[in-house]
Write a structure and sequence with these properties.
Elements (H helix, E strand, L loop, with lengths): L34 E6 L2 H14 L4 E6 L1 H6 L9 E5 L3 H6 L3 E2 L3 H4 L11 H7 L1 E2 L2 E2 L2 E4 L4 E4 L1 H7 L7 H11 L18 E3 L4 H13 L11 E2 L4 E2 L4 H12 L9 H9 L3 E6 L19 E3 L4 E6 L2 E9 L3 E2 L4 E6 L5 H12 L4 H5 L16 H4 L5 H14 L6 E2 L6 H13 L10 H22 L1 H11 L3
Amino acid sequence: MGRFGLLLAGLGLLSGCGGAKQPEKPRVVVQDIPVQILVLDDPPLADSIRQTWAERGEGKIEVLDRSSQAVIDSPRRVLDADVVVYPAPLLGTLVERKLIVPLDPHYRRDKNLAVQDLFPAVRLRVAVWDRELMGSSLGNPNFLLLYRPDVFAQFGLEAPQTWDQYAAVAEKLADRNALGDLAPSTEDEWLGACEPGGLWSAELLLARAACYTQKNNDVSIWWEYRTMEPRLGREPFVRALREMASDKVNRSLSSPAECYAALLTGRCAMAIAWPNGWGVKDLTLPDPKWPVRLAALPGAGEVFGDEGWAPIGEPQRVPLIGCEGRLMSVTREAQRRDMAAQRVVWLSGKEWGERVGLNSQATMPARVSSRLLSRWTGETLGEDGLRDLSDILSAEMDPQDNLVTIRIPGRQRYLGALRQALESLTGKDGAPSDEAIRAAVMEATRQWESITDEIGRAAQRSALGKSQAL
């Protein structure tokens, strides 16, 4: 029987008259019931957990996989599992539905989990709800700017430091004829600069608008906290929306992994993504490989405050965190929480966590000790790119300089309204008119108000405060 097997022994009871011995009750043995681990939206990660546990683990586990949408849509308030592995931005929905519980303090101190080894932004923001550490991380990616230095050199370009510079670079890269020998084959579409579309474009809209907002003590830059009224009509958001609708950027690809693949195969020269090797492992890369460099996302050259727009010396960057990644938590329904917590500690801890988390396109390093960054990127980056990645990770993991994404219930619907606003303005000749911008913002605001009212304004206000760890 494994280390975590359960053994219940029935004791023989002696009773009766005149010392007569009653028949001894049989010993009852409860077999080693497997700890059930539910993995949402990530079959490869589920396979990685099965394989790692089969090679190293003691006791039994059963790994299940399901879509997060099935959980969101289900009226049931159970997960039918002891442990759940889930996309990081789903944390708020799971907590508010009372589906997961905070990690027990005893296990937070476990040297195998090594909580202090997690990047500060992960252990203090991404994995936290209402000031409680809800679990551990198997990997935490952030949006980065990736580019081809050879193409940039041909155009006389440098990595853009502001969003205005980004727009100018994207416009130049759109000219396929200027590429010369660096152009892809005529059979391949030239994308120039690309960003992931769909709900990812809404996340990037939030990231850009955050840069234009003067830092203050507000709970949220997206809502007025006391009333939960949307702040989408404010200048930072309107400017970000206008710029994104006007940029010469391709948003036809559906994921960061597809954008990274386009960069590696020579179909674009600049992409917003992260350099995850698992998501492009089946690509046939050119030989020799195209060089790839990395930079932080651009920032704002001016910010909007109480006195209007004001220029600033250094670009203001506000990394948006928690947009993707995989967290691991104990479920509320777990009957054997100690055993469930031990699985969380082992599978996401310092020794095993990296090995498990590598096999997912939704992860990047979450720990300070992840020194071999090439394990995460595969063979896609050279020495310069790996050095860039190391520098960015060191600089961007301070929780004081980051903004956590929307994590309250209804998250996908809120993002969907932003996506709709952006898509209503793109694909037209020239920049969108002021009237079109106002109409898009008004419709997004109306949808946000409707979502908040449907879920409950007081409940959403409470969730927003918990999300920001007030």
